[in-house]
From TrEMBL:
It holds the Pfam family AIM24. Gene3D superfamilies: Mitochondrial biogenesis AIM24. It comes from the Bacteria. This is AIM24 family protein. InterPro entries: AIM24, AIM24_sf, Trp_RNA-bd_attenuator-like_dom.
Length: 216
């Protein structure tokens, strides 16, 4: 059976061109900046599709808004001059902050995953967005993202404000260095970190968004 596949191509570092031949992609709501050919835009919501997705959104508060873009031609996506990175998934799961997901192939499944205190420290709630399956997705970051490898026996610590996404078999633990000195205004601004262990990749941006942890 012949399957249509969207073609993802970066135009510089801040614009994503997606060529469609009758297939569809999911993109951040309002991120289309230009297109040629025939395109149709339909608003969707994050947290997964269908009734389960609707219930998930109500329970988790994950409010990523996306649109389905379907047609023939090339559609160009960008958001506030953010830098864009492409990720190819081969049957694995991408964990990404909803604000950092620009576009994904229509065949990829989206949902939510519990992040616990890590999410709370980022001010993004207790859940994050997941993208599963085989295909391409595009991430946004404030500055060019770097990809850091985590291997068994070599854990990685990441500032919650710089974290963008991760893939692979990784366990994440929330670490806090809050002490009495912190409470007396002698904190370093690095009181909260995420520790990744296992085997996988972590995407980090060269900029720290405002977080609860960064205020302590």
């Amino acid at each position: 059976m012949f399957t249509l596949v969207a073609q993802f191509l970066l135009q510089g570092s801040k614009v994503l061109a997606v060529t469609l031949a009758g297939d569809a992609v999911k993109a951040k709501n309002g991120s289309m900046v230009a297109y040629d050919g025939q395109m149709a835009f339909k608003k969707m919501s994050g947290g997964g599709e269908g009734l389960r997705g609707m219930v998930t959104r109500r329970l988790t508060g994950e409010q990523m808004t996306v649109m389905e873009v379907k047609g023939q031609g090339t559609c160009y996506f960008a958001d506030r001059a953010s830098d864009i990175s492409l990720v190819r998934l081969n049957g694995e799961t991408l964990h990404v902050e909803s604000s950092n997901l620009l576009c994904a192939e229509g065949t990829l499944r989206t949902g939510t995953a519990f992040t616990g205190l890590r999410g709370a420290s980022q001010g993004n709630g207790l859940f994050t967005t997941t993208v599963e399956g085989s295909g391409q997705a595009a991430l946004m970051s404030d500055g060019p993202a770097v990809i850091l490898r985590v291997t068994p026996g070599t854990p990685l610590q990441v500032d919650p404000g710089a974290y963008v996404a991760h893939t692979g078999s990784l366990r994440q633990d929330f670490q806090s260095g809050v002490s009495f000195r912190t409470m007396f205004g002698e904190g370093s601004g690095e009181s909260f970190q995420i520790r990744f262990e296992g085997d996988g990749l972590v995407y980090v941006q060269p900029s720290e968004r405002n977080t609860l942890g960064g205020e302590i």
